[in-house]
Amino acid sequence: MAPTPLPQLAGGLFLSDGGLETSLIDLDGTALPQFAAFVLLHSAAGREQLRRDYRPYLELAAAVAAAGFVLESPTWRANADWGRRLGIDDEALARANRCRRLRSALPQLNVLGGCCGIDARHLRAIRGAWLQ
After folding, report:
1. I want to staple 68 with a disulfide (CB 3.0 to 4.6 A). Which of 6, 57, 110, 113 is the partner?
2. Confidence check: pLDDT of 99 > 80
């Protein structure tokens, strides 16, 4: 599959959510183990909490004509290193990193961003590539 150009690079107005974990902790009083919001994906109540957090941003994007939306996923800590620290197995991590249903649920979503769980192995490989 060929890479698709990022639509926000062509110009136009794009809105985004802001500071998911900080909002969850400071505004909602949510306890996030190790600052990991992806743990909310494992329960219906957690998924609803994420929906409530994203909803105002999505409503604003829908109300602004021709605005796109860049959604940052809650999965930046959904990797093997953090999974071990949190007691979460590989299958649960894989489920947390799947965001396919968002496209049909959020038609104004142009870009799904966010880290996909970089761990120490990835960082060593990136460092090695830069040092060559």
Report:
1. 110
2. no
